[in-house]
Amino acid sequence: MDLYQLTMAQAYLELDMHAPAVFELFVRKLPKTRLFLVAAGLEQIVDFIESLRFTSEEIEFLSSLGLFRTPFLRYLESARFTGSVHAMAEGTPFFADEPILRVTGPILEAQLLESRVLNIGHFQSLIASKAARCVLAANGRQLVDFGLRRAHEADAGVLAARAAFIAGFDATATVESGRRFGIPLSGTVAHSFIEAHDSEDTAFRNFLKSSCGATTLLVDTYDTERAIRRVIDIEHELASQGAPSSVRAIRIDSGDLAAQARMARGMFDAARCEHIKIVLSGGLDERSIEGLVAAGAPVDVFGVGTALDTSSDAPALDMAYKLQEYAGKPRRKKSVGKATWPGAKQVFRQYDDSGKAVLDRICLADEHGEGQPLLSQVLREGRRIGPLPSLPEIQRHCRREVEALPPALHRLEEGASTFSVLISDAVRTLATAVDAAN
Amino acid sequence: MDLYQLTMAQAYLELDMHAPAVFELFVRKLPKTRLFLVAAGLEQIVDFIESLRFTSEEIEFLSSLGLFRTPFLRYLESARFTGSVHAMAEGTPFFADEPILRVTGPILEAQLLESRVLNIGHFQSLIASKAARCVLAANGRQLVDFGLRRAHEADAGVLAARAAFIAGFDATATVESGRRFGIPLSGTVAHSFIEAHDSEDTAFRNFLKSSCGATTLLVDTYDTERAIRRVIDIEHELASQGAPSSVRAIRIDSGDLAAQARMARGMFDAARCEHIKIVLSGGLDERSIEGLVAAGAPVDVFGVGTALDTSSDAPALDMAYKLQEYAGKPRRKKSVGKATWPGAKQVFRQYDDSGKAVLDRICLADEHGEGQPLLSQVLREGRRIGPLPSLPEIQRHCRREVEALPPALHRLEEGASTFSVLISDAVRTLATAVDAAN
Known about the structure:
The structure is a homodimer. By secondary structure, chain A is an alpha/beta fold. Chain A has a domain at 3-129 and 314-437: nicotinate phosphoribosyltransferase. In chain A, 41% of the residues lie in helices and 20% in strands. Chain A is built from 15 helices and 19 strands. In chain A, strands 13-12-1-5-3-17-18 form a seven-stranded antiparallel β-sheet. The mean pLDDT of chain A is 95. At the A-B interface, helix 1, helix 3, helix 5, helix 6 and helix 7 of A face helix 1, helix 3, helix 5, helix 6 and helix 7 of B.
C-alpha cells in the first residue's frame, strides 16, 4: 500500500465521504513493441480484495507514524471491501484506454485497493502480453519458462510462470509455480553438474542413472559436437543392452543456436536417434525465437528466461487505476497527456462472420453496445459471485481470443496497433460535460 | 527453486558427491547504461540461507512428481545449508566478473541455493544500481520511491524501496517497506481525491484539515496555475488567522515540469510562501532528473516510480551463480561467450592517497592482494558470524564508496566502464590449466 492511500482514506472517513466511487484499471498507451496486451492476474486480485485486512501489528505501526488519528485506526481494524468488481476474463486481449477491471464501492474502500490491484494486474498482464508474442513466434513449438533467477524477486518469478502459462507456455522450471498453480514442471541440468565431474561422459551417465525416466542432457559445457557424440554412444550402448532410451532431449545454451541445432539433429538422425529432442535456451526472446523458426532450426522446445520474466523490452505498462465517477457524477482529470475518459465503462468487441475480431467500442456501462461485452461481474458485496475459471480454461480462452485477432496483430513488428478501438458518443459527450464543469 | 536444482541434488546424494564446492555470484557484463553496479540484498540472502527448510507439504508435492526417490525426499526433511558464505558489504560498487558472493559448502547444499540467491541478489543489486544513478543526477535534492504500483509484484515493490534507500534515496511511499525496514515514509495525495470533490478548493481545504501536520497538495489535476493561486490564498488565510502553515509542499505530476516548477516557485516567493517546497513526479528517471537539475528547475524533491522499481532501461543484469571449484579442483565452463574465471576468488580495491578508488584486482581467495579485500565472511557452518550492518550504515557505506569512484563514473553517459578491473596472474594461470584438462 502507498502511504497516500491511507492519508486520503482518513480524510474520507473524517469528511463522511462514503458515497460510491467507480475506479477503473486500464493502460493509457501500448509500448511500441506490443500490438495487443493480454489481461491477467484477476484471480490474485480477487483473492487480495476478499482477504484485505489490517493486522493489529500493522495498525500499531501506522499509529506510530503520527499521521493517523484514533477513529481512523479503529476503522482499519474492521475495514473490508464491500463493493463490486467487474473485469475482463483473464487471457482476454485488450488495447489502450480499455478498462480491464472496474471497482465500484465506497470511495474509502476503493481507494485502499489502488496500489496493490495495480501491482498485481500490471505485472501479470505485462508478462502474459510478452509471453503471447513468444507463443506466436514459436509457431507451435513448445515453450518453457526458465526465468525465476532474474525475475524481480520471488513473487515475480512464481507469478510470471502463471502469466506465461495463460498466454500459451507449456511448462515452467519454477517448482513453486507447479505446486501452487498446477503448471507442468520441466527441468534439465546445469553446467555446474557437468563441471563437478572429472569427465563429461561420467557426468552424463551419472545424471541419467539418477533420473527417474528419460531426461535432458546439457551439451555445451566444453565442446558441443563432442558432447553430442557422447550422447549417441550412450544411447547406442543402452540399445545394445536392450535398455529403454534414457535421453529424452539435449539442451544447447550458448553459441550459434541454429547451426548447433542443425548439427545435433543431423548427427542424431544419422545415428538412428531420431527420438532425441532439441531444447534451446540462452538469452532467447520472441525475436530470436522467430529468427530460429524462420531459419528452419530443428528445435522442439525453447527455454525463455530473462526476457520473459522481466518483459525486458518493455518492463512496464502505462497502467493506471483512476477515479471515473463519484457520488453518481462522472470525474476526469485533465493533466497534460494524462486525461482519462470519465464514467463507469464497458468494452464491446465485435466479430465478423468468420469469428475474427473487427473492432472494440468503449461505451458507458449502461449503454447497450453491439457485440460481446468484455467485462462481467466477479465480486458483489465484496465476495466472489462464483468460481473463477481454471488455469487450463484461461489458457484455452486466451488462445482462442488471440487467434481471433486480425492477422496483422500476430506479427512482431513495432508500431501502433492497427486494431480499431472506438469511443462511444455517450462517453465523448460525458467528457465534454465534465470538462465544462471544472 | 528451479526443478533442476532438485534433480541434480538427488544425483549428488545418490552418487555420494559430498565434497565441498565453491559457487560465486557475479555479473558477466554491465548494461551499457551502467558504469558501475551496487551490491545489495545480502541481508535477505543470509536470511534465506539460514532458514532454508522444506515443509512436509512441499516434500509431498515433490513426491507426487514421480521424479524423486525416497532417500532424497527423506534427505530434504532435514536439509540445511552447513557451509560458509563470503560477500561484499551491501552498498559496495562492483564491476563485471567480480564475485559479490562466494558460497562454500557440500555441492548438494550449495546447488539448492542457486536460483533464490540469484533471484534476491540480482533484484536488489539491479535497483540499487539504478537508484545510485538517480542520486548522482539529483545532486543533493531529495528522492522518494513512488514505484510500488508498477514494480513486478509485491516483493519487488517492498524490496525496491530498500535497495533505493541503500543507494541514497531519502524515503519511500511504500508503507510495508517503512514497517519492515524502518525506511522513512513519504506520501502526498492522488488526483482521485481532488476529483472526488466538486471543487479543487474544497479538496485542498479538506485534505489539509484531515492531515496531521503540514502536508503536500497536488496541483495539476485541472489547471496548475489556478491551483497554485488557491494554495497561496489558503496559506494567506491561515496566516491572517495566526494559524501555522499547513502546506509543506506542492506536487506537479504532468506537463512541462521545469516550466511549471519555475512558475510555482516564482508565484510562491512573490507571495511570501518561500517555505512551500516543490515535489516533481511523473515518469521521471535519472536522465530527466539530470535535465531538470541542469535547467535550474527549482525543485526540492523528486518522486521516482516506474523507472526505478523496474530499472526500466536495463531491467536485468547478466548475473550468474557458477561453480568455480569442486573437491579442491578449479572448474570452468567454456561455453561460447559465457566462459568464467575458475577458483575461489577475492577482489582487492586499491585507493590513491586522496581516497579515490583506482583499480580492482580479481585474485584467488588465498592470494595476498594489494588494497582492500572486498569480500568478507558472513556465514560459517550455516550461521551468521555476527550482526549485519544496519540500513543507515549501509547507506553511508554506499555513499562513501560511490564518492570514492573516479569522477568519470559519476556521469550518466553510456559506454564501457573505464574503471580498471585486473585479473591476477594466478587466476589466469589457473584458467589455462583447467582448459587444458578438459
